[in-house]
Write a structure and sequence with these properties.
This protein is α+β, with helices and mostly antiparallel strands and 416 residues long. It is built from 12 helices and 23 strands. The strands form 6 sheets. Strands 12, 15, 18, 19, 22 and 23 form a 6-stranded antiparallel beta sheet that branches. α7 packs antiparallel against α8. The radius of gyration is 21 Å and the shape is globular.
């Protein structure tokens, strides 16, 4: 069958690769994709928000189903658009995508259905937000209500840092309309992990868990980013905790969305923190995490094409996972997550042995890949142990000169 993947980042490259190695899939298209994906898919020059163009392409090219990678097209109703035209597509509709598109909506849902999460309040008035911060004290978490490309969260260590963050969002419009409401949350301490599930028609198919590294620099220092690396499994999180997370968080959330008249289909991403009171929700996303996808999908032994096609047709199917760990390290352009210089040439990636490379922010000039974004590539390795996987990745990265780029040297440190 032919499959269309929407998006252009590292997550979509991992998806395209997984479909490309699926025996059931003949042709993978990615719209718009990036230069590095050409080895796994045919690139289609249609913007991910050009709904008409995407639907027409899917129809004209006998696409069996479309898989949506990023949050923006979901939040704007791409799934609704396809379904109205009788086209098969995997992802939440516009109403269900609000679980990511509005932090306030997600928090209210959790409060109503007793799904464990941090205590919070929502504000669109700066003075009231500041008053709440002074009342609660620091550390405290400030979140832009809407989509902010993974950058709309400030973990403030002081009251002044928290006040600056709400002022930037509400008065300075740092994230535009996405920050016109802020959610202020209690700071939770504990081990974090990402729990992603395929969901279709009320059926939940949990994936193996992973752990992301959000901070830019070694030792979890520096600003929050979209993610600097990840690994799976997460040995310090027991199976009992994974089961409790499913029972107390994932399943009740899917049931709550159905009860609210907005049933959720697609990828439900639960960002979880294991506190002294048990697992609690940090955030929900309505799609695969990036960079978690790049370390979780390589562990999937089941044919992804057959699986998505089956559940879209209403047939249940078991997932089979490889026991071997996978670890991935993001190579970012200098300056990320702030202002980055585009156009820096990447070293010869063919020199990186025994690893897989997911392209995120790359384009091509002649026979050279150049940086075209903040997070440029992710380099992943698999081993018998997490230590093996880590050693393989860093050995590969150490073979070339990364002038103009940087990467963390300690991905996986919490487990190793």
């Amino acid at each position: 069958m032919n499959v269309l993947v929407i998006g252009k980042g590292g997550r979509e490259h991992a998806l395209a690769h997984q479909f490309a190695i699926s025996p059931s899939v003949e042709q993978v298209y990615v719209a718009p994709g990036n230069a590095g994906m050409a080895q796994d898919a045919e690139l289609v020059a249609i913007d991910e928000l050009d709904f008409e163009g995407l639907a027409q392409f899917a129809q004209d090219n006998d696409v069996a189903f479309t898989f949506v990678g990023p949050e923006q097209p979901l939040a704007e109703g791409l799934v609704d658009f396809f379904e109205q035209r009788g086209l098969k597509i995997f992802g939440p509709n516009k109403a269900a995508a609000r679980i990511e598109g509005s932090k306030a909506f997600a928090k209210e849902l959790m409060k109503k259905y007793d799904i464990p999460t941090a205590s919070y309040d929502s504000f669109s008035d700066t003075a009231k937000a500041i008053s709440y911060i002074k009342q609660q004290g620091a550390p405290i978490v400030i979140k832009a209500d809407g989509l902010a490309a993974g950058k709309g969260v400030v973990v403030a260590q002081s009251e002044q840092e928290a006040i600056d963050a709400v002022t930037d969002m509400l008065d300075g419009q740092k994230f535009g309309t996405s920050g016109s409401t802020v959610v202020i949350e209690e700071f939770l301490d504990g081990e974090e992990f990402s729990f992603m599930s395929f969901v279709q028609d009320g059926k939940i198919y949990p994936m193996v868990i992973s752990q992301d590294h959000k901070r830019a620099y070694d030792g979890d220092m520096g600003p929050n980013t979209g993610g600097m690396g990840a690994y799976s499994p997460v040995p310090q999180i027991s199976q009992a905790i994974v089961d409790e997370t499913f029972t107390k968080i994932v399943r009740p959330t899917v049931e709550a969305m159905k009860s609210e008249g907005t049933p959720f289909n697609g990828i439900l991403y639960a960002g979880i923190i294991l506190t002294s009171q048990g697992p609690k929700v940090i955030e929900f996303n309505a799609r695969f995490g990036d960079p978690e996808t790049q370390v979780v999908l390589p562990r999937l032994k089941t044919d992804l094409g057959t699986f998505i096609s089956s559940i879209l047709d209403g047939h249940e199917m078991e997932l089979e996972w490889d026991e071997r760990p996978v670890l991935g390290v993001v190579v970012a352009a200098a300056g990320y997550p702030g202002t980055v210089e585009k156009g820096a040439p990447l070293p010869d990636l063919a020199q990186l042995q025994d690893v897989t490379i997911s392209h995120a922010g790359t384009s091509r000039t002649g026979d050279k890949f150049i940086a075209n974004g903040g997070r440029v590539i992710l380099v992943a390795g698999s081993g018998e142990t997490l230590e093996d996987a880590q050693r393989i990745v860093y050995a590969a990265l150490g073979k070339v000169d990364w002038s103009g780029f940087f990467y963390r040297k300690d991905i996986g440190w919490r487990a190793i």
